[in-house]
Every structure is written in C-alpha cells, then in structure tokens.
Amino acid sequence: xAGVTQSPTHLIKTxxxxxxxxxxPKSGHDTVSWYQQALxxxxxxxxxxxxxxERQRGNFPDRFSGHQFPNYSSELNVNALLLGDSALxxxxxxxxxxxxxxxxxxxxxLTVT
Amino acid sequence: xxxxxxxxxxxxxxxxxxxxxxxxxSSSVSVYLFWYVQYPNQGLQxxxxxxxxxxxxxxxxxxxxxxxxSQTSFHLRKPSVHISDTAEYFCAVSDTGNQGGKxxxxxGTELSVKP
Lengths: 113, 115
Hints:
- The complex is a heterodimer of chains A (113) and B (115).
- Chain A is mostly beta strands and 113 residues long.
- Chain A is built from no helices and eleven strands.
- In chain A, 0% of the residues lie in helices and 50% in strands.
- Chain B has 115 residues and is mostly beta strands.
- In chain B, strand 10 and strand 11 form a beta hairpin.
- The termini of chain B are far apart.
- The interface between A and B is medium-sized, with 28 and 25 residues.
C-alpha cells in the first residue's frame, strides 16, 4: 500500500519563475493538504482540497494556488517565486469524514535563487 | 486564533535517560492535539494523538503524552530513549470543529540522543 508520494524531490528555480509540485494521496484518501516548512521552522498550512475544491486556506498570498484532480491527486502552483519561497513543501492526505489522522509525504525541497 | 509553543528548541540527552519535550498551546476553542516526528530528509510521521477520553496517550514505541487542559499543555515523555529516537519533534493542534483540517504546528524540538 503506497503512502503519500510527492514529485519532484528537489527543485531549483530562479526568482520570478513559476513552479508546480505534485502529490498523490495515500490509497483510499480523498483530502489533500499542503504545508510549507521553512528551514528550522514548523510546517505552515497553505490550503486543503476536497472534492476538487479548496476548502480551507492559510495565510498565504494568491501566488500560491492549487488543484485537485478526480483521482484525488493534487498540484501546488507558486507564481512569481521569491527567495523566501525556498522551503520544504509537504503534502498530507486523509480519509473521508471526521478522520483526524493526516499522513505526510516526504516533501519537495524547493530552492529559489 | 490558535498557537503552539514548544519551549525547547534543542534537547540533548544520553541514551537510556528519560526525556520530556514540552508543548503549550493557546486556543479559544476546543482542540485536538498531536505529536509528529520528522527524521532527517523525511516527511512527518504521526507519533500520537489526543482526541478525547483518557488524558494520557501512548505510542507503540514507548512515548507518552498527557493532555493538561488547565495548563494548556501536551508534553511528550519517554522513560528511556534510544539513539534511534534522534529526530525533530513537532507538537500540533487542530480545532475540533475543523473536521480534520488545518494543523497548527510548533517550531519543533530537536532531540539529540548521545551514546
């Protein structure tokens, strides 16, 4: 049973560019959340997707957008990259309903130069 | 608004010694509480959770945490640590009305177990 997978594992981009990160949830899960973890910090919630819609959003600018596909996989898009966007981006999935246990993927390390 | 404070950024300890990682939270609503562990270059793994019932919760690898509502704390303890427990530990809260949504994390505590 595959857990949460993310691609790519590492990425280097230049300021002003755009990036797309991908996430496949754990089998049987239908809800995906994205978190940003800056170096030496705890993860910060970006947004959550369920039924292909953004259900909750954290305090991140509109440059951060997402999408969920019918197979429950998800993408995180960041436009106009800033140096401060350099971080580990974590995807988490959970099952339907009142399930509080979120399973995290290994993350994508984004470096903006 | 909710917030989580992990009182120690680094905790060095010798193998087989006891350890306590401290976590305090602030919230105007009821919360669920979690401890996650992050090994180097890996994602987060759920260590244990408090949703309701007994205030003392245990993990399968010997960690335990106690929910103290009056002190708004959820400290993590282990009576005897191993080298393999070396990792970053994160305390997190979630609004009980949130239906498994947003997790708010503390800054993390780096546990370093020395032989």
